[in-house]
């Protein structure tokens, strides 16, 4: 194991829904859903990494982003420190350059879609937060 890998993940919002993507075949944990993002490159800021990853993956450019939560997670094959951002605004429409399936989810209505282990808590938190806002 080579230490902890820094990863950015964007919770992209549109009309009260958030975007999630399915990890494509050929990647570790293929078939699990996650927030778009990826590994931070050497010398890169978190914001720059997020903008680069969202452009590469989906052709989206975040224009208003806010760091929300950071958490460490140890998988069998990798340890990651995840930096979750809320992306309140973006330009572009989704074009999945890397073969991702993608969906906009209403918080609390993700059904039995399997999210990565580190993300399930986040998905639950978004549901609680949306519930609290409604009541
Ligand atoms: N992109 C992303 N990765 C996540 C999330 N949650 C989570 O645990 N991860 C983990 O963080 C790591 C990110 O790696 P990645 O494979 O997406 O990154 P990448 O595209 O830059 O990598 P690569 O070029 O080596 O394939 C994976 O081990 C993944 O399991 C998430 O919400 N989004």
UniProtKB/TrEMBL annotation:
Signal sequence range: none
Keyword Ubl conjugation: no
GO MF, one example: metal ion binding
EC id: 3.6.1.55
Presence of the UniProt keyword DNA damage in the record: yes
PANTHER family: 8-OXO-DGTP DIPHOSPHATASE, NUDIX HYDROLASE FAMILY PROTEIN
The protein, known as: 8-oxo-dGTP diphosphatase
């Amino acid at each position: 194991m080579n230490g902890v890998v820094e990863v950015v993940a964007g919770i992209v919002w549109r009309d009260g829904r958030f975007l999630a993507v399915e990890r494509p075949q050929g990647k570790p944990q293929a078939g699990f859903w996650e927030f778009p993002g990826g590994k931070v490159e050497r010398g890169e800021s978190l914001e720059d990494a997020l903008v680069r990853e969202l452009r590469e993956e989906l052709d989206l450019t975040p224009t208003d982003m806010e760091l929300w939560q950071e958490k460490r997670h140890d998988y069998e094959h990798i340890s990651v420190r995840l930096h979750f951002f809320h992306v309140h605004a973006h330009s572009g429409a989704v074009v999945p350059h890397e073969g991702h399936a993608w969906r906009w989810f209403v918080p609390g209505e993700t059904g039995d879609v399997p999210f990565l282990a580190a993300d399930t808590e986040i998905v639950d938190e978004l549901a609680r937060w949306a519930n609290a806002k409604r009541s």
